[in-house]
Design brief:
The protein is 82% helix and 0% strand. The protein is built from 16 helices and no strands.
Length: 408
């Protein structure tokens, strides 16, 4: 491919904007697809069967993601992302056509979910490996901020869009909308011009060897290795209580489903504000230090959430969690982008994503059981302690504490 030589801010680069448009369309498609899948599963079976269908996608994603990182580094992330969205587009449109003509049953839905999980295992590491191939190193923090905004847009807009499609034309229409959104990403991805990277021709050997090389790169790096521990700890502390504990807390406080929506909206606004800040600034001085302290402050907000009886105060706490946890997460991802050798970035992105998508969801049943035994207060306190530990660890590791994003 032709090298990208233009020196522009990320938000003005045609390459970055094409990537961002494709990522936004794909994220919207994901949100619509999973809403349609859950609705179709609930309509065609029991709640337990619907939960099983939704859980099927997580299995190949967790098992294959590390090898997905190897493939992204070996074949090039643009090819992998393009192929992934092509498969998702065709499979989703095929399912929509089938639903228009017949009722395929839960088995077909589970098969499609399985395919999506396998494709996600390739797509997610490849998306993480693309930014250094389309933007200068000093713009990667801005790119991460823009990616965060796109992700929030997909989450906020995708669910209502999917619900509207289901209401107007049923699940078949919703799957058709999801397929069309995946299709919108394809011409944008095809138009990307990728810059060549050092060592791009040095990738050979079997996939396990490539994975071992990536893990050795992580282990020997003074910043990346500790960052993986930071990511894992923060995901373990954050994902379970906020996904399981929040619903229980809302029921205990009498907030209802609308209350959960308001709390999640507060979190989304805070996280969106953090992404916007990073997009506009493009650099945060003393990055590692700020990342560690924002993790600690976000952890305090998580602990406080369980002790706020009024919904308005809980929304403010969620806003603080989103702002501080969102900023620390964006800074962590930006440091991974700038510290990692781009030739290993697919594998490193896979390791970082495995915590939130593969390991942390295993805490759901543990969180539910713990809440049943001890209540929400102690569980949220443990969650806050684990998240705080991730921040303290980041501050304690000298290389991470002194890590700095390049100035744009």
């Amino acid at each position: 491919m032709t090298a990208v030589t233009e020196a522009r801010p990320a938000h003005r680069s045609p390459q970055v904007l094409r990537w961002l448009g494709a990522y936004t369309a794909s994220t919207l498609g994901d949100s619509v697809f999973y809403l349609a899948l859950s609705w179709a599963a609930v309509s065609g079976g029991t709640p337990a069967q619907a939960g099983l269908v939704m859980a099927v996608a997580a299995v190949p994603r967790a098992l294959l993601m590390l090898f997905g990182g190897v493939i992204a580094d070996r074949l090039g992330p643009r090819r992998v992302v393009l192929a992934s969205d092509t498969v998702r587009c065709l499979v989703t449109l095929g399912l929509a056509a089938t639903l228009f003509l017949a009722s395929p049953g839960l088995g077909a839905l589970a098969a499609v979910a399985l395919v999506f999980g396998a494709v996600d295992a390739l797509f997610l590491p490849a998306v993480g490996a693309l930014p250094p191939r389309i933007a200068d190193r000093d713009q990667l923090a801005r790119v991460q901020g823009m990616r965060g905004l796109a992700h929030r847009t997909g989450a906020v807009v995708g669910a209502p869009l999917g619900g509207l499609a289901v209401a107007v034309g049923g699940t078949a229409s919703a799957f058709a909308v999801a397929g069309a959104l995946f299709g919108c990403s394809l011409p944008l991805l095809a138009a990307l011009r990728i810059r060549p990277l050092p060592r791009e021709d040095a990738r050979d050997g079997a996939a396990p060897r490539g994975l071992a090389d990536g893990l050795r790169h992580l282990r020997g790096h003074p910043v990346l290795g500790p960052l993986m521990i930071v990511v894992l700890l923060s995901d373990l502390g954050f994902v379970g209580p906020l996904n399981v504990g929040l619903a229980v807390l809302a029921e205990q406080r009498g907030w209802g489903a609308s209350g959960v929506g308001w709390v999640l909206a507060g979190f989304g606004v805070g996280a969106g504000a953090a992404s916007l800040l990073l997009t506009v600034k493009g650099h945060v001085p003393r990055t590692g230090l700020v990342m560690g302290w924002t993790m600690v402050i976000g952890a305090v907000s998580i602990g406080a959430l369980a002790h706020l009886p009024q919904l308005a105060l809980a929304v403010l706490a969620a806003l603080a969690i989103g702002l501080f946890a969102g900023l620390s997460g964006a800074l962590c991802n930006a440091l991974i982008q700038t510290e990692c050798d781009p030739a290993y970035l697919g594998r490193v992105s896979a390791v970082a994503g495995l915590g939130s998508l593969g390991i942390a969801p295993l805490s759901y049943p543990v969180t539910g059981a713990a809440i049943g035994l001890w209540g929400t207060g102690p569980v949220f306190a443990v969650s806050a302690a684990v998240c705080a530990l991730s921040g303290v660890y980041a501050l304690a590791v000298r290389a991470v504490r002194r890590a700095e994003l390049p100035k744009p």
